Amino acid sequence: MNSEEWYDTGTKTTFHFDDNGMFVDSNGKGPQKGFKNNGKFSDWLHNLVVNRIKKLGLIEKCHPENGAPIYHTSNAFNSPEKLLVIIQGTGRVRAGVWSVGVCAYSGINAGSVLPDIIEAQKRGMEVIVLNPNDPRSDIFMTRYRTNLGMIRHTLAVFEDLIIPSDPKRVFILCHSLSGECTIAMIRRFHMWVIPHIKAVAMTDAYESPPIVEGVKMTSWSKQHFHNWICSDKEINSPLPEGTASIHFSAGTKDHSLSTAKARPFIWPFFDENGADKETDELDKFEDYIGDDIYINPIFHYIPYCNIA
């Protein structure tokens, strides 16, 4: 059995991803009852996805040297014109995987970041894939006053690598609890964020109010953040606003599937904000000095985080 195949001890079956990205056996059937979606399978899947990420030209970099590995295109830290930052949700997923279960039952394209990297590269964007669930984020425990390793990892990568590399326009794709990682980042680095971040696409993501004293951060974020949340409403139909974003239906009640369902609408949203353009206008920080008039204290969406 090669590294592209997985032998499941529960069903006594060997699986692989076919040309359409579906996880199937030699007869073209997917996992059946008894399939073991366990830690060994998730480790194999992660290694496979990382290998495919590298085949797309991304490079592994540990931050710091004894820290968590992240993955980036060759010019991601060389003042790129357009940069996509991908942040996974919480749970056992590592860099490159949105959901282990979705990869197994709905295909690697639905459950991984591979299609997002390809879409970014079509637009001439550089890409960075974060690794927020790696336990080595404890390295930054004394540096950032938060008990969430995901947030520590995100803040450190932005502060140490992304911001100093001076990307011109930044786009963020985040899922689940990485929405809060993004909110923490925009609060902490708000003076840099406003003139650099063009759009944030969130999928069934947690979002607390992005309040910064003396800065209209909520007004700014609602112009740049879309959150596709779990709902039985028609996909992409408008929903009541969130605390930091404009909400749309992901067209599913399945939290783990929200990114795959929203993907056909995420990239048009990015393009509306200049992802498909060589250059584009940027916001000015001074235009957002002052206090927010409108903050929604009621609709504070917390997703159902059963990460498969």
Biggest pleated sheet = 8 strands, mixed
Helix content: 25-40%
Number of helices: 9
Report the portion of residues in β strands.
Answer: 15-25%
CA-atom Rg in angstroms:
19 Å
Structural domain count: 1
Distance between the termini: 26 Å
**CATH structural class:** Alpha Beta
**Spatial strand order of the main sheet:** 4-5-7-6-8-9-10-11
From the 3D coordinates, which CATH architecture would you assign?
3-Layer(aba) Sandwich
- Give the averaged pLDDT, no decimals: 93
The total beta strand count reads 11
Secondary-structure element string: EEEHEEEHHHEHEHHEHEEH
Low-pLDDT regions: 297-308
InterPro entries: Arb2, Arb2_dom
Organism: Trichomonas vaginalis (strain ATCC PRA-98 / G3)
Protein name: Arb2 domain-containing protein
GO biological process, one term: regulatory ncRNA-mediated heterochromatin formation
Task: Map the helices and strands.
Layout: E1 5-8, E2 13-17, E3 23-24, H1 39-55, E4 59-63, E5 68-72, E6 82-87, H2 100-106, H3 108-111, H4 114-122, E7 126-129, H5 149-162, E8 169-175, H6 178-188, H7 190-193, E9 197-203, H8 217-224, E10 225-229, E11 246-249, H9 258-272
Parallel strand pairs: 6-7, 6-8, 8-9, 9-10, 10-11
Antiparallel strand pairs: 1-2, 2-3, 4-5, 5-7
InterPro entries: Arb2, Arb2_dom
Pfam family, one: Arb2
Domain Arb2: 65-134, 152-234
